[in-house]
Amino acid sequence: MTKITQETIRHDDITYQSIAKAFGLELVEHQEALERMKKLSKPHPSQPDFSYDVPSPALEAKKRMIRLPIDESRDAKDQVLFVDESLWVPIAVVNGNIHILPGVPRLFEKLLEGLKPGLVPRLTDPEGKGVYRILISTPMAESAVATYLTELAGKVESKGVKVGSYPRWGKKRNSVTLVGRDKAYMEELVPQIEENVQGTRVEREDEMDQSDDPDEG
Fold first, then answer.
1. Which of 17, 24, 29, 40 has CA 20 to 30 A from 10's CA?
2. pLDDT by residue (tens digit) across 51-65?
3. Number of domains within the chain
4. Average pLDDT over residues 160-189
5. From which residue to which does the signal peptide run (predicted)?
6. 164 and 69 in one domain?
7. Are 135 and 197 spatial neighbours (Cβ–Cβ below 8 Å)?
8. Half-sphere exposure of residue 172: CA atoms within 13 angstroms, side-chain side
9. What is the rounded average pLDDT of the residues 123-151?
10. What does the mean pLDDT of the chain come to?
11. Are 84 and 166 part of one and the same domain?
């Protein structure tokens, strides 16, 4: 059985406090997490006299790790997940879509593996089409193509296609992207976009940098 010590999770981490403040939530001491901590967390050798029944700075540090941002308007069981029976560490879920996975890489990996069965179905494409991204490199300034791209975005939105524009700091070429599931429809758009932004389809956004200026970068 894996033992997670106090040092595995930083007692001075402010993630819970920061997320709670951002969403206007209170930090609540989670009793099940505390009970699991008592059962599964082994005291550090430097604290042989540590006790959960005696107030101490060490106990306060431990309890800070199970004071979680809780939304009283949501179902409690959906806000605190225990995904591995060998771990006392909870995954706090805020706003239904923010998952806080504390700990060092080894612990993070175990939590992520435990979360996978519930996470993967949410990421699965029900139509099996996948998500595609098309990248077009343009020498034009973002402001010069903004009007056209705004109009294009309005036209393709009903097809589930997103249009993006990304300036590249210090470079002569910027990037225009199409992201969506309808690959055939997106492919049809490429020639007209290339024409309107004076661009070229590329696989990487830096693909044409050297041809623009061999001495740059």
1. 24
2. 999 999 889 989 999
3. 2
4. 93
5. none
6. no
7. no
8. 13
9. 85
10. 87
11. no
Instruction: Please check whether residues 111 and 169 belong to one and the same domain.
Output: no
With beta carbons less than 8 A apart as the criterion, state whether 180 and 129 touch: no
Domain boundary among the residues 90, 123, 156 is at 123
Integer Cα distance of 124 and 112 in angstroms? 17
Instruction: Look at residue 1 and tell me if it is in a domain.
Output: no
Phi/psi for 129 (5° steps) reads -90, -20
- Residue where the block lists tokens 């029944």: 53
Q: Is the Cα torsion angle 186, 187, 192, 195 positive or negative in sign?
A: positive
Residue with the two structure tokens 């430097």: 46
CA-to-CA distance for 150 and 145, rounded, in angstroms? 9
Strand, helix or coil at 170? coil
Average pLDDT (7-12) is: 52
Structure tokens, 65: 């790790």
Shared domain for 107 and 153, answered yes or no, is no
Question: Region 81-95: what's the mean pLDDT?
Answer: 93
| Cα distance between residue 58 and residue 60, in whole Å | 5
Q: What percent of the chain has pLDDT over 90?
A: 64
By residue range, what is the domain housing residue 49?
A: 6-123
> How much of the chain is in helix, strand and coil states, percent to nearest 5?
40, 20, 40
Residue from 40, 44, 35, 117 nearest 86 by CA: 40
Q: Considering the entire predicted model, what is its pTM?
A: 0.57
Query: Does 101 map to a domain?
Result: yes
